[in-house]
Amino acid sequence: MCCGRGFPLQVLLTGGQAGEAPQLPRLLELEEKKPKVLVADKGYDSQVVRKVLREQSIRAQIPERGLPEGNKRRRKGRPPKVSRQMYRQRNIIERLFGRLKEMRRFACRFEKLADSYLAFVQLAFMKICLKPYFSDTP
After folding, report:
1. Could you tell me which Pfam families the record lists for this protein (predicted)?
2. CA pair distance 32, 42, nearest whole angstrom
3. HEC string of the chain?
4. Are 102 and 82 in contact (CB under 8 A)?
């Protein structure tokens, strides 16, 4: 999870086979200050995720998944409204992962133990957060 400026807020390490969307409620529990808006891609389009966000009064900017030709919508009611301008902000988290993947150790996952890998991810996050303060270029 990251803020609107691209700085990491929370990280939750799971097994490689675990999906991202089911981890969202746990990730939101870790965060002290609840976000007003959550921008996510179509992978997070599930009734469970939308229900959790509604319960916590967080506005969801998640587009509906496309359906194969001839299939009906999965849920009743009107489709969720997604602001195109707000949805464009989703690239911020993608850029954060891009910066992490520039670090070979993160991309190749040399650490085999979860604790040491999480420690490296946290160090990488610190490097990203501190770079503007110790860099000659913006």
Report:
1. DDE_Tnp_1
2. 26
3. CECCCCCECCCCCCCCCCCCHHHHHHHHHHCCCCCCEEECCHHHCCHHHHHHHHHCCCEEECCCCCCCCCCCCCCCCCCCCCCHHHHHHHHHHHHHHHHHHCCHHHHHCCCCCHHHHHHHHHHHHHHHHHHHHHCCCC
4. no
pLDDT (tens digit, 0 to 9) for every residue of the chain, 138 residues total?
A: 888 888 888 888 887 777 778 888 888 888 888 888 888 888 888 888 888 999 999 998 888 877 766 666 666 667 777 888 888 888 888 888 888 888 887 777 778 888 888 888 888 889 888 888 887 766
Tokens, residue 26: 């746990």
Rg (CA), the chain: 17
CATH 2.40.50 fits 21-134, yes or no: no
| Nearest-angstrom CA–CA distance, 64 and 91 | 18
**Position 7, amino acid:** F
Say if residues 41 and 92 touch (Cβ distance below 8 Å). Answer: no
